[in-house]
Structure formats: structure tokens, C-alpha cells
């Protein structure tokens, strides 16, 4: 029986992962800004779900939630840094406040949660940290520079983290979903920077296409949750796991593009030593 701590558990991936863990017989500390949204899960799995209030941008509350989880259950086996939201805007359209707020949500919050659980996982000699990144955390495209920057930051931190904590028996899994049917693209969640007419051609279509995809995305969050559990249970857990055919196609194209660009400029790269 594992103990999970999942952020953003009220909706989408967070909720799907919580449900899959509970179905498997595990215990879940489900953290949400609106814990009342988890009342049905608490009722359905008596004694196995703690719904706790947590805004992941509130660093003081992060320490308290981790301490409570350990007090209640004596351990934390899996931390899922899932809470997040989308932001559409050209780099020139995206303000400093918007960038800093999203870094708080996608980077500083997950970093603080990771720091808070690691002493317990090291003591246990086991554990896993799941970072919900995005295919936009592997590569980027016009209109998502700010969003990608926050996910790239999380991925960079996590790649180093994986090497540092492997000797303690702790796994790190970075998940890179494509478009999944969650509340992500809905009006309540998706952020949009103020538009400049100059970027109508490059970013304009995304401003309407992304909200237009709401409820029609190909990805099934329940299947994503099952894939995450399968990867965590594997003897060789991957560092990065793209999810969805769109993500698989785009990550493959990005890898091939990077390889081709490197090959085209390899001579120049190698020609700069003293
Ligand atoms: P949802 O909007 O369905 O869920 C997002 C969750 O994050 C909600 O529970 C929301 O809570 C929570 N949240 C937002 N801000 C905060 C905060 N400050 N503190 C605590 N919780 C917060 O979207 P998804 O399930 O899709 O998103 C989960 C993760 O998946 C995100 O990190 C996102 O970037 C990533 N992702 C999603 C993709 C998709 O297509 N769906 C694609 C790639 C990545 P509340 O209900 O209170 O708003």
C-alpha cells in the first residue's frame, strides 16, 4: 500500500491519478485549492483519502501539508507535482508578472514540495517524484514561450534530481502529455496574455484553437494515469514519458530535428577548442 501526495487533485490529471491510485488500494493525500471538490472521493474511499487545502504557490502551507501527510501515514511514497495551467501569448505579449506567477506555480511550488518530501523518502530508502510537465516542456512553438519556459525549468531541475536521488532508491518521472480532455483549455483555467495585433498571424490561431479544443482533446486522463502507474512500477522507469499520439509524433519530430541541426553544425561546434 502506497501513500500518494497529489497536487491539483480536484480536476483533470490530478483527479484521474488519485482515482487510479485509490482503485489500486493505495492511500491518497489529495491537495487542492478547493478541497470540497473532492468530497465524493472522500466518501467513496472511506479512510483512504485526505482532502487538504493547498495552493502550491503558498510555500508555508507546503511544509505544513507534507508534515501532516507524514504525521497521518508515516510516509510519502509518491509525490505528484500536477497543479498547473496553460498560458497563451507571444513572448513580447507576456508580461513579467504573468511569467513570475506561472514560475511560482510550475517551478517554485514543485521545487519546494520536492525538497519537503525528499528527507522522508531518503529515510524510507524509496519513493517517486512525478512531475507533470508537457510536450511543451520538451520543445516549444509560437504562442507558448512563457508556458514552455516554466516546464523546461521543471524538466531541467528534474533531470539533475533524478541523478542525485537514484542512489537513495528514489525515482523521478517527468510526464509530457499532449492534448488531454481535462479542464486545461476551458475558460476558467486557460490564461491568455493581452494580444498585440502584430502577432495575429503567428499566435492568433492558437488563441482560438486551444479553447476550441475544450472537451474534444484526444487524450484520456484515465489512460494517462494508468500509463504513469505502469512507468512507476517498471524496473527501469523512464526519466521522460510523452503521453498521447500527438505528443509521441511531436517529440519524435523534435528529436529528429535536433539531431539534424546538430549534424549540420557539428563541424563548427567542434572547431572552437584552443
Ligand atoms: P485541469 O485544469 O483539469 O487541472 C489543473 C489543476 O491544477 C486543478 O486542480 C487546479 O485547481 C489546479 N491548480 C491550478 N492552480 C493552482 C494553484 N495555484 N495551487 C494548487 N492547485 C492549482 O488541467 P490538467 O489536469 O490538464 O492540468 C494538470 C497538469 O497537466 C498541469 O500541470 C498542466 O500544465 C499539465 N498538462 C496538461 C495538458 C492537457 O492537455 N490537459 C497537456 C500538457 C500538460 P482548481 O480546480 O482550484 O483551479
Automatic annotation (TrEMBL):
The keyword Oxidoreductase applies. InterPro entries: NAD(P)-bd_dom_sf, Sc_DH/Rdtase_CS, SDR_fam, SDR_oxidoreductase. Gene3D superfamilies: NAD(P)-binding Rossmann-like Domain. Signal peptide: none annotated. Keywords: Oxidoreductase. Belongs to the short-chain dehydrogenases/reductases (SDR) family. PANTHER family: SHORT CHAIN DEHYDROGENASE (PTHR43976), SHORT-CHAIN DEHYDROGENASE_REDUCTASE FAMILY PROTEIN (PTHR43976:SF16). This is Oxidoreductase. It comes from Actinomadura rugatobispora.
Amino acid at each position: 500500500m502506497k501513500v500518494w501526495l497529489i497536487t491539483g487533485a480536484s480536476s483533470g490529471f490530478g483527479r484521474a491519478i488519485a482515482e487510479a491510485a485509490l482503485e489500486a488500494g493505495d492511500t491518497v493525500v489529495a491537495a487542492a485549492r478547493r478541497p470540497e471538490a473532492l468530497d465524493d472521493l472522500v466518501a467513496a474511499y472511506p479512510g483512504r483519502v485526505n482532502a487538504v487545502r493547498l495552493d502550491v504557490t503558498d510555500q508555508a502551507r507546503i511544509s505544513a501539508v507534507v508534515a501532516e501527510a507524514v504525521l497521518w501515514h508515516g510516509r510519502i511514497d509518491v509525490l505528484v507535482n500536477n497543479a498547473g495551467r496553460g498560458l497563451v501569448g507571444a513572448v513580447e505579449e507576456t508580461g513579467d508578472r504573468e511569467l513570475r506567477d506561472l514560475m511560482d506555480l510550475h517551478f517554485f511550488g514543485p521545487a519546494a514540495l520536492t525538497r519537503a518530501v525528499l528527507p522522508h523518502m531518503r529515510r524510507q530508502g524509496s519513493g517517486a517524484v512525478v512531475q507533470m510537465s508537457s510536450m511543451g516542456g520538451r520543445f516549444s512553438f509560437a504562442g507558448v514561450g512563457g508556458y514552455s519556459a516554466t516546464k523546461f525549468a521543471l524538466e531541467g531541475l528534474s533531470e539533475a534530481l533524478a541523478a542525485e536521488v537514484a542512489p537513495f532508491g528514489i525515482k523521478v518521472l517527468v510526464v509530457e502529455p499532449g492534448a488531454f480532455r481535462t479542464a486545461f483549455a476551458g475558460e476558467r483555467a486557460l490564461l491568455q496574455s493581452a494580444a498585440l495585433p502584430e502577432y495575429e498571424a503567428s499566435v492568433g490561431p492558437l488563441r482560438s484553437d486551444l479553447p476550441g479544443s475544450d472537451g474534444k482533446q484526444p487524450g484520456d486522463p484515465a489512460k494517462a494515469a494508468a500509463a504513469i502507474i505502469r512507468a512507476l512500477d517498471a524496473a527501469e522507469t523512464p526519466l521522460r514519458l510523452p503521453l498521447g499520439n500527438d505528443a509521441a509524433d511531436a517529440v519524435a519530430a523534435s528529436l529528429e530535428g535536433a539531431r539534424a541541426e546538430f549534424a549540420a553544425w557539428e563541424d563548427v561546434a567542434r572547431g572552437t577548442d584552443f
